């Protein structure tokens, strides 16, 4: 009898040893909903936008241009990284992300206005803020 009990114990311990985490855990699907902007927040944003005093009276920048400038914070970024950072803040709010061509056009405009510059690293452009761009973001 002792021999039979030992065999059963050995078999049950072997089964326990073979179980891995995925056998012990049941995964559930979680619904993710986009965040809605409340009318109060939208009104406040509009009021602030209207009362905003420009640091730089030479150029009026669009919200998209300002968003792109603010992603840098002293960094040098490739176009792909800029797209990731900018779109991370837009998509959860239900605002469509930038396409590559749109982003390139906005960045070209910022370079033309003197807010950004770029260098070639290999075959890719790395973008960074000019002194004017740094002043504008402060």
How do the strands and helices of this protein lay out in sequence?
Layout: H1 2-18, H2 21-24, H3 39-51, H4 63-70, E1 77-78, H5 79-90, H6 100-112, E2 116-121, E3 124-129, H7 131-137
Antiparallel strand pairs: 1-3, 2-3
CATH architecture of the domain at 61-137: Orthogonal Bundle
The radius of gyration is 27 Å
Unreliable spans: 53-57
Q: What amount of the residues lies in strands? A: 5-15%
Supply the helix-strand structural class. Answer: mainly alpha
Largest sheet: 3 strands, antiparallel
The CATH superfamily label of the domain at 61-137 reads Winged helix-like DNA-binding domain superfamily/Winged helix DNA-binding domain
Strand numbers in spatial order across the main sheet: 1-3-2
Give the oligomeric state of the chains in this entry, treating copies of one chain as homo and distinct chains as hetero. Answer: single chain
CA-CA gap between termini: 82 Å
Compressed to H and E, one letter per element, the order equals: HHHHEHHEEH
Q: List how many beta strands DSSP finds.
A: 3
For this structure, the CATH topology of the domain at 61-137 is: Arc Repressor Mutant, subunit A
Helix content: 40-55%
């Amino acid at each position: 009898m002792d021999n039979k009990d030992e065999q059963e114990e050995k078999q049950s311990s072997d089964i326990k040893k073979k179980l891995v985490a995925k056998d012990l855990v049941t995964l559930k699907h979680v619904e993710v909903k986009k965040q809605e902007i409340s009318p109060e927040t939208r009104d406040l944003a509009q009021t602030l936008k209207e009362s905003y005093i420009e640091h730089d009276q030479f150029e009026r920048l669009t919200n998209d241009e300002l968003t792109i400038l603010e992603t840098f914070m002293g960094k040098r970024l490739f176009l792909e990284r800029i797209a990731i950072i900018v779109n991370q803040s837009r998509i959860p709010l239900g605002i469509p992300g930038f396409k590559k061509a749109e982003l390139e056009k906005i960045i070209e405009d910022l370079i033309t206005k003197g807010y950004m510059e770029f260098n070639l690293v290999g075959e890719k452009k790395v973008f960074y803020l000019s002194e004017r761009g740094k002043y504008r973001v402060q």
